[in-house]
């Protein structure tokens, strides 16, 4: 039997000795490229921050829970700062990750080995442990996969330009590179697809009917499916073609090997969910659309891209040539597209079957995602159309016939090089964090061509002061009050109490309310002042100068100015702008309060016309809540150096007591 390598050598006109020498030189170049890729990937991982997005935090929560608590429930770790994820479901009174549990379970086994052998753990050694795991589960499989890509191009490509172009593209020009930095299913699925493709091609294209190839093809084709469920189509295609080539080995070697990861997939899924259906298939049900301790699930009101606002035509454009476009972000795949278009010219090409497979997989998967109109979110806030990433090796292999056909043409070399440069840029732009928008998305957004941001709800009235409302006394609550507590600049505990005091019921005072403002340092009262407010003017958004009333004419202008500054909440007047909806926990109750953010900032010059002159920026952030007297659950004052943007100090006060709500008694 004549191997493909021998055929290629003969076809190129080289003598066997020359072919061997050229092959050794190419492998030296491949090894150097892989070494650079390994170094780049290792450096990127070691310099990356862990827990970069809700997507990978969801998996890390499962890993932590399995090793630290022996359960798939993620309630404990989900409460920890920096660990919480929106990718969770509520099931039988507990939180679980939405991600299929097989991969996190395998990684949990690796974490257990690291913890028991080195003593390192995710609580005290988060960076070290996460980096070790990412190197093992992301980087090492990718390097092995790239090594197999080198073997594939060496075996089936005819020209050096083709070989080097495909290998360089695989090493530096795919959007899989930034995903090395995060725990995700796409990296391991792509590597697994290569591990299945190589033995599959040896069987189908080279007629090498070896049991080990059937075993590897079966195991890794199914393992790819377990990490990318739409890859089940790939598994079926591989099974069908191999069954046609050798029914006996397919039934007795391929199938048992494929059943192993499949059985483990369903076993781990049953252990996690109590059923055979993965949690993420419950999208849109009560498991996703829950409310817990006053906080609704993110998926009840998704934001940004997750709102799925685009039409099918717009979505198709942005998935191909737009802000998340396969061809706009990675123009090297234009060569793959051209290879598909020239399929009729490759009737005798040994790569014709893989070419058809990649085309069929791409069309069906792309059509499948286009049909899911309720999930038009481009894979969320990420640097790629990540649901299609596992097809990367198929697309790289598919460009080989076209490159071989025109590799001697100068126009192809120039065009290919330009495509390669663009793809390398896109792959390296998000290298520190794949969970960010692609550069084209940012460019479109800055140009005003796209806008996926949801405008915050408008405020009930204009806000010229940090107080949102003035409560009205009732028979049940004759003196509505609210108490805020927080650390002072010197670190000592401070309290601020606002109380509506009774006023005389007459025509002149009908729209007037008197509030008492009392400041405490520890338990000691340090200041108490009363202010009379015209409620109608306040609710109309008038400035403090207009809504404050002065019953005593002897009050000085300095006292009035101090009152104005108190209500401004900052050194100078500035209206507050509405922000997003947020939920916060307070000491008032177990459930969170639904709040709307509001903020304002002003710049002032201190020590003007002196050597100590400095420009400062004051920012006031508010958490508005209509369930609390005066409409404020929390406020925060920050002071920055305008020139350096350095934070100089910050004071945060949160509601700790209020009329009509009360505090939660201590147990």
Question: What does this protein look like?
Answer:
The protein has 667 residues and is α+β, with helices and mostly antiparallel strands. The protein contains 22 helices and 14 strands. A hairpin with a 2-residue loop joins strand 7 and strand 8. It starts with a helix and ends in a 9-residue tail after the last strand.
What is this structure, in a nutshell?
The chain is of the alpha+beta class and 667 residues long.
**What percent of the residues sit in helical stretches (DSSP H or I)?**
40-55%
Structural class: alpha+beta
The strands making up the biggest β-sheet line up spatially as 9-8-7-6-5-14-13-12-11-10
Task: Supply the number of helical segments.
Answer: 22
List unreliable stretches of 5+ residues: 1-11, 663-667
Instruction: Tally the beta strands.
Output: 14
| Distance, first to last CA | 82 Å
Structural shape:
elongated
Largest sheet: 10 strands, antiparallel
Summed over residues and divided by their number, the pLDDT gives a mean of 92
SS strand fraction: 15-25%
Radius of gyration: 32 Å
Chart the SSEs and their pairings:
Blueprint: H1 4-11, H2 16-46, H3 54-68, H4 75-78, E1 88-91, E2 94-97, H5 102-118, H6 126-156, H7 160-172, H8 185-206, H9 211-227, H10 232-245, H11 247-273, E3 291-292, E4 295-296, H12 312-320, H13 326-329, H14 333-341, H15 352-371, H16 392-398, H17 400-406, H18 410-428, H19 439-446, E5 481-487, E6 493-501, E7 512-521, E8 524-534, H20 535-539, H21 544-547, E9 548-549, H22 557-568, E10 577-584, E11 593-606, E12 614-624, E13 632-641, E14 647-658
Antiparallel strand pairs: 1-2, 3-4, 5-6, 5-14, 6-7, 7-8, 8-9, 10-11, 11-12, 12-13, 13-14
Helix pairs in contact: 2-6, 2-7, 3-5, 6-7, 6-8, 7-18, 8-9, 9-10, 9-11, 10-11, 14-16, 14-17, 15-16
């Amino acid at each position: 039997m004549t191997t493909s390598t021998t055929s290629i050598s003969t076809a190129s006109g080289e003598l066997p000795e020359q072919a061997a020498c050229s092959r050794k030189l190419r492998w030296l170049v491949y090894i150097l490229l892989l070494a650079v890729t390994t170094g780049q990937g290792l450096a990127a991982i070691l310099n990356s921050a862990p827990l970069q997005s809700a997507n990978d935090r969801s998996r890390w929560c499962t890993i932590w829970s399995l090793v630290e608590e022996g359960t798939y429930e993620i309630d404990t770790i989900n409460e920890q700062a920096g660990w919480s994820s929106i990718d969770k479901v509520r099931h039988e009174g507990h939180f679980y990750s939405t991600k299929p549990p097989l991969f996190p379970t395998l990684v949990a086994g690796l974490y257990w080995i690291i913890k028991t052998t080195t003593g390192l753990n995710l609580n005290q050694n988060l960076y070290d442990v996460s980096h070790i795991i990412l190197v093992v589960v992301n980087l090492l499989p990718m390097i092995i996969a790239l090594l197999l890509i080198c073997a594939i191009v060496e075996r089936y490509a005819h020209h050096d330009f083709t070989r080097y172009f495909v290998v360089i593209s695989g090493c530096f020009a795919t959007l899989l590179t930034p995903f090395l930095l995060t725990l995700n299913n796409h990296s391991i699925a792509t590597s697994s697809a290569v591990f299945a493709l190589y033995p599959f091609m040896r069987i189908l294209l080279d007629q090498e009917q070896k049991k080990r190839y059937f075993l590897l093809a079966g195991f890794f084709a199914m393992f790819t499916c377990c990490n990318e469920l739409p890859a089940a189509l790939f598994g079926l295609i591989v099974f069908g073609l191999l069954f046609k080539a050798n029914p006996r080995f397919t039934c007795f070697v391929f199938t048992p090997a494929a059943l192993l990861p499949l059985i483990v997939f369903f076993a781990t899924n049953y252990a996690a969910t109590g059923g055979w259906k993965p949690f993420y298939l419950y999208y849109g049900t009560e498991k996703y659309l829950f409310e817990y301790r006053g906080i609704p699930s993110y998926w009840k009101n998704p934001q940004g891209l997750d709102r799925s606002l685009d039409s099918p035509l717009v979505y198709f454009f942005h998935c191909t040539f737009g802000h998340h476009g396969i061809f706009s972000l990675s123009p090297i795949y234009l060569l793959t597209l051209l290879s598909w278009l020239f399929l009729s010219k490759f009737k005798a090409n040994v790569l014709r079957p893989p070419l058809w497979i990649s085309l069929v997989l791409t069309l069906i998967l792309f059509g499948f995602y286009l049909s899911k109109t309720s999930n038009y979110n481009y894979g969320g806030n990420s640097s790629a159309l990540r649901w299609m990433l596992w097809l990367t090796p198929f697309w790289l292999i598919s460009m080989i016939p076209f490159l071989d056909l025109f590799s001697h043409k100068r126009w192809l070399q120039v065009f290919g090089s330009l495509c390669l440069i663009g793809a390398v840029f896109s792959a390296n732009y998000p290298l520190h964090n794949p969970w960010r928008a692609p550069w084209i998305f940012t460019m479109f957004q800055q140009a005003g061509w796209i806008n996926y941001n949801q405008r915050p709800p408008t405020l009930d009235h204009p806000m010229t002061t940090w107080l949102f409302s003035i409560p009205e006394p009732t028979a049940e609550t004759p003196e509505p009050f609210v108490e805020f507590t927080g650390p002072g600049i010197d670190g000592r505990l401070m309290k601020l109490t606002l109380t509506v005091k009774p006023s005389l019921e007459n025509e002149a005072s009908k729209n007037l309310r008197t509030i008492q403002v009392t400041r405490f340092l520890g338990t000691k009262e340090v200041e108490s002042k009363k202010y009379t407010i015209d409620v109608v003017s306040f609710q109309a958004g008038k400035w403090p100068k207009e809504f404050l009333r002065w019953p005593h004419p002897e009050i000085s202008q300095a006292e009035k100015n101090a009152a104005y500054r108190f209500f401004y909440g900052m050194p100078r007047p500035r209206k507050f702008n509405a922000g997003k909806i947020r939920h916060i926990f307070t000491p008032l109750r177990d459930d969170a309060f639904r709040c709307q953010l509001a903020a304002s900032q002003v710049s002032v010059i201190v020590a003007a016309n002196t050597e100590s002159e400095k420009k400062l920026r004051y920012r006031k952030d508010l958490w508005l809540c209509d369930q609390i007297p005066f409409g404020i659950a929390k406020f925060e004052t920050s002071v920055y150096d305008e020139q350096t943007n350095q934070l100089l100090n910050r004071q945060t006060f949160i509601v700790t007591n209020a009329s009509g709500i009360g505090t939660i008694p201590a147990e």
